[in-house]
What does this fold into?
Amino acid sequence: MATLLDINSNRIRHPEKANKPDTEVLRKPKWIRVKAPTSKGYAETRKIVKDKGLVTVCEEAACPNIGECWEKSHATFMILGEICTRACAFCNVRTGLPDAVDAYEPQKIAEAVVEMKLKHVVITSVDRDDLPDGGAQHFVDVIQAIRGASPVTTIEILTPDFLRKAGATETVIDARPDVFNHNLETVPRLYLKIRPGARYYHSLRLLEKVKERDPAQFTKSGLMVGLGETKPEIMQVMDDMRSAGIDFLTIGQYLQPTRKHAKIDRFVTPDEFKSYETIARAKGFLMVSASPLTRSSYHADSDFAQLRAARESQLGG
It folds into this structure.
């Protein structure tokens, strides 16, 4: 029996210990188990990240796809430190008082992009409510550094909501990333429990604002399922997203990082994910990725190529 990766803790879990009561928060179905990362490509990506002192959401959020993505030299860089000013009930990133912003981080990320030969890169961040602009200018600096070092690389950003930071969203929009992603995460009814520091309609409005200011930018947002939401609620969020002009929807299974985090209500089946994808495409999204292991930046490079092709086909038609 193969060694498996415990995707809730990012630690190697051995089968002989699987019967211990504290091994898993909730027993996972077979469709959501993954092998531990052991490939040469994974090791090479890890070395680049560590040598440059960079942070990735792949590690901080204990992403189940880290082995597959890092084997292909795909990593999602997390800027502005590894400590978040918020404490969302689903997130594995540490909460507390962040360190000072690393002024050399944009250049280090640009160097990593070149070294990893990335055609498409995803940049995300912790929430930095302590900064006057929420870290918006730092996003711009990273985008500009990447473009200066690797003009052919397309750039996708996954931003915080910049709540109560006047002009922050506009600053990032004007840097013209190829994809502007901001996750709604869950349905409005669960916000107080799951995203207590955020506001559903503010997040929705942020994405709508991107389209108003720069219609050419692709917009993207993601949802977690398995938190207690209902199918009609998911349908309504899809409609809200389409009203805001969102191009790309991702839907993935919520996984409980620790016993202190929000509990999993249930594991959504692969067939249900296929149903969500069919419905979302019928509602007009240019691109939909829905599966148990789908995450915001999972297969982001190939998905971007399909997203661009879908728009070209739409315009051509």
